[in-house]
From TrEMBL:
<dbReference type="GO" id="GO:0000287">
    <property type="term" value="F:magnesium ion binding"/>
</dbReference>
<comment type="function">
    <text>Catalyzes the addition and repair of the essential 3'-terminal CCA sequence in tRNAs without using a nucleic acid template. Adds these three nucleotides in the order of C, C, and A to the tRNA nucleotide-73, using CTP and ATP as substrates and producing inorganic pyrophosphate. tRNA 3'-terminal CCA addition is required both for tRNA processing and repair. Also involved in tRNA surveillance by mediating tandem CCA addition to generate a CCACCA at the 3' terminus of unstable tRNAs. While stable tRNAs receive only 3'-terminal CCA, unstable tRNAs are marked with CCACCA and rapidly degraded.</text>
</comment>
<dbReference type="InterPro" id="IPR015329">
    <property type="entry name" value="tRNA_NucTransf2"/>
</dbReference>
<keyword id="KW-0479">Metal-binding</keyword>
<dbReference type="Pfam" id="PF21133">
    <property type="entry name" value="CAA_C"/>
</dbReference>
<feature type="binding site">
    <location>
        <position position="57"/>
    </location>
    <ligand>
        <name>ATP</name>
    </ligand>
</feature>
<keyword id="KW-0067">ATP-binding</keyword>
<dbReference type="GO" id="GO:0000049">
    <property type="term" value="F:tRNA binding"/>
</dbReference>
<dbReference type="GO" id="GO:0004810">
    <property type="term" value="F:CCA tRNA nucleotidyltransferase activity"/>
</dbReference>
<feature type="binding site">
    <location>
        <position position="69"/>
    </location>
    <ligand>
        <name>Mg(2+)</name>
    </ligand>
</feature>
<dbReference type="InterPro" id="IPR002934">
    <property type="entry name" value="Polymerase_NTP_transf_dom"/>
</dbReference>
<keyword id="KW-0460">Magnesium</keyword>
<feature type="binding site">
    <location>
        <position position="57"/>
    </location>
    <ligand>
        <name>CTP</name>
    </ligand>
</feature>
<dbReference type="GO" id="GO:0042245">
    <property type="term" value="P:RNA repair"/>
</dbReference>
<dbReference type="InterPro" id="IPR042090">
    <property type="entry name" value="CCA_tRNA_nucleotrans_2"/>
</dbReference>
<feature type="binding site">
    <location>
        <position position="60"/>
    </location>
    <ligand>
        <name>CTP</name>
    </ligand>
</feature>
<protein>
    <recommendedName>
        <fullName>CCA-adding enzyme</fullName>
        <ecNumber>2.7.7.72</ecNumber>
    </recommendedName>
</protein>
Length: 459
């Protein structure tokens, strides 16, 4: 079998797993019709001038089998004051959600309602009814324009997008959230539209990195000054890619994409093209070893700080944990310890910061004052110490002291000498600090961190 045939065989097998069945499509379409009917009835009952729009992968038919989250946007007229949009939008969202199965209020730039209906998550999000980028007032407004642009340009490449999304999920590079910093679904759709297919996107991994600027909306000609300002800003920020939003020249769709996640995509694309396998899309569970054996192999030590995870969403908590880990890295470096790597996360209600360090103790010298040299105690002091000198009539000596890293960290926290995340500062001060030990529920996480299998490009 040729390499091309092998790749095609793999892709067809993957598509069978990720392409929605006719029954699933019928369920989704029926669900959306019901939700639209409920929304329109509710809008009418409240006498509001609001239009409901479905956005996201369901509306674009780029969703993966089994992934049915609904994004229903409630678009208010442009002349609505922002405070009124927030207030009436939340009121409308709650009124719609009362007719669904369950709901709660969530918060982003402004409050919105998260509901469930027939086992499916439904986000009810107020926004402005924008017709162009010049109308955009809030971060969510563009979603209506994004959906329209993709529907106008996708031209039957829906399954190509599905393959790219599943590939990015398989290599852990999917999601633009700040704690992921990967490829958004919209970015995946743009790349397929721009390059023509899933395989052509992978083949372009090196080219697009060197090309740097991707302009599917042709803004560099249509709105040159605005688009160049975006390019300049994003180039200065050293982004791996600058993808000018085809519906808004002021925005880089890839602004949240990190170098690490692009690097994973870069290497995995080549690997798939050279050795096609379903594992790129559906990775097997990584083989887990013993973290204590890993410590013995490397001759390093593991410090873990464990504390109750505050009630924060991952978008807020994980960046604060990362900031704190970097704070410990800098503080311990000043104290003479070398931090070889760090890892953060949340598990079983606990937040954790793991630090791999080069040693568990440090030796330092202190000055030890002694008695007057002509006394009996002075003679004992002189005999017991290696390096002794006089200042006036008093003896002094150097003393070597061994400091345990746990004690050093405790002292640094007590003296407020570690830069930590603002919302978790108090939690960290009260953290349990362990050395070369983690609770059972974190043993696998510790192994994946210490072995670097968590990030291994060749794994």
């Amino acid at each position: 079998m040729s390499l091309d045939d092998a790749i095609e065989t793999v892709l067809q097998k993957v598509l069978q797993r990720i392409r929605p069945t006719e029954e699933e499509r019928a369920f989704v379409e029926g669900l959306m019709r019901e939700l639209e009917g409920i929304a329109r009835d509710t809008i009418e009952s409240l006498d509001l001038d609001v239009k409901p729009y479905f956005v996201g992968s369901l509306a674009k038919d780029t969703y993966l089998a089994g992934d049915h989250d609904v994004d229903l946007f409630l678009a208010f007229p442009l002349d609505t004051p922002l405070e009124e949009l927030r207030e009436r939008g939340l009121e409308l969202g709650r009124a719609i959600a009362e007719r669904l199965d369950s709901h709660e209020v969530a918060y982003a730039e402004h409050p919105y309602v998260r509901a469930t209906y027939r086992g499916v998550k439904v986000d009810l999000v107020p926004c402005y009814d924008v017709k162009s980028w010049r109308d955009v007032r809030t971060a969510v407004d563009r979603s209506i324009l994004h959906t329209k642009w993709v529907l106008d340009n996708l031209r039957g490449k829906n399954d190509e997008v599905r393959l790219l999304k599943r590939f990015l999920k398989g290599i852990n590079a999917y999601g633009s959230e700040i704690y992921v910093r990967g490829f958004s679904g919209y970015l995946a759709e743009i790349l397929v539209i721009r390059y023509g297919s899933f395989l052509k996107v992978l083949e372009s991994a090196d080219f697009m990195l060197r090309q740097k600027v991707i302009d599917p909306g042709n803004w560099l000609k249509r709105e040159h000054e605005v688009a160049m300002k975006t390019v300049g800003r994003e180039a200065e920020a050293d982004r791996p890619l600058i993808v000018i939003d085809p519906v808004d020249p002021r925005r880089n769709v890839a602004a949240n994409l990190s170098w690490e996640k692009y690097g994973i995509f870069y290497f995995k694309s080549t690997q798939l093209l050279e050795n096609p396998s379903e594992e790129f899309f559906f990775p097997m569970n990584r083989k887990i070893g013993n973290y204590l054996s890993e410590l013995r192999r490397k001759g390093t030590h593991l410090v873990a700080l464990l504390f109750e995870a505050p009630e924060l969403v991952d978008d807020v908590l994980l960046p604060q944990l990362e900031r704190s880990a970097r704070g410990f890295e800098r503080a311990l470096s000043r104290e003479g310890f070398n931090v070889l790597g760090w890892n953060v996360g949340r598990k079983s209600g606990k937040a954790f910061i793991m630090l791999e360090v080069d040693r568990r103790e440090r030796e330092r010298v202190t000055i030890k004052p002694g008695p007057e040299f002509f006394t009996e105690r002075g003679r004992d002091f002189y005999l017991k110490n290696e390096r002794v000198w006089l200042v006036g009539k008093r003896l002094f000596a150097e003393k070597n002291v061994m400091d345990d890293i746990v004690e050093v960290i405790s002292e640094l926290l007590e003296k407020n000498q570690v830069a930590t995340g603002k919302s978790i500062r108090e939690n960290i001060r009260n953290a349990e600090i362990t050395l070369d030990y983690v609770p059972k529920e974190l043993e696998d996480e510790a192994y994946l961190f210490l072995s670097r299998e968590k990030w291994n490009l060749k794994g």
